[in-house]
Each structure stands twice: as C-alpha cells, then as structure tokens.
Specification:
The chain has one domain: YaeB-like fold. The chain is 27% helix and 37% strand. With 93 residues, the chain is of the alpha+beta class.
Length: 93
C-alpha cells in the first residue's frame, strides 16, 4: 500500500491482533508479523469486509489460508485481526 508521496504505508497491529499471535501459537500455529504484512502487500485475494474493512487472503499451506482484516488510513494500515481458515471454505470460485 502506497501513500500519497509514493512511500509504503506503515503497518500497525491492534492490541487484539498482537494477542492473536500468542493465541495461535498456543494452538501450534506459528504466524509472524512479516507474514501478515506480506499478506497485506501481496495478497492472493482481496475482499470487502464489514464497515469498510479490507480482507486480504494468502495461502498458508496446502489446506489453509490466512485472512487478515485491516483498515486503511491515509498514513497507515491497522491490522484488526487475522486468522487461518480452510482453503475449501474461502476459495470457492
């Protein structure tokens, strides 16, 4: 995501998103900040979400995707949450 001056916008994480890293790790799913940022910058798919939010999706493994919900502002992007999901649920077309 590029701002008005041609620079890549800063990507910030909400408190909920930061907690999500730990919750998923406790379940044996290791996802790091870099992977979440790359999902936003280079998604396999983009969808419109609730209240104008954006959902970026990227392959996680052969059976799963990661979905990142974020809000875009003029100067930054804020990651609201992210979660893994089954590919067959989110890749129907």
């Amino acid at each position: 995501m590029i701002d008005g001056e041609g620079k890549v916008k800063e990507i910030r994480f909400s408190n909920h998103a930061l907690l999500k890293f730990k919750v998923l790790e406790a379940h044996g799913i290791i996802i790091n900040e870099e992977f979440v940022k790359n999902t936003i910058l280079y998604p396999d798919r983009i969808e419109k979400g609730y209240k104008g939010r954006i959902i970026a999706q990227k392959h996680l493994d052969n059976e799963h995707v990661i979905r990142v919900i974020y809000e875009e502002f003029p100067d930054c992007i804020i990651v609201i949450t992210f979660y893994p999901g089954r590919r067959d649920r989110y890749e129907k077309d």
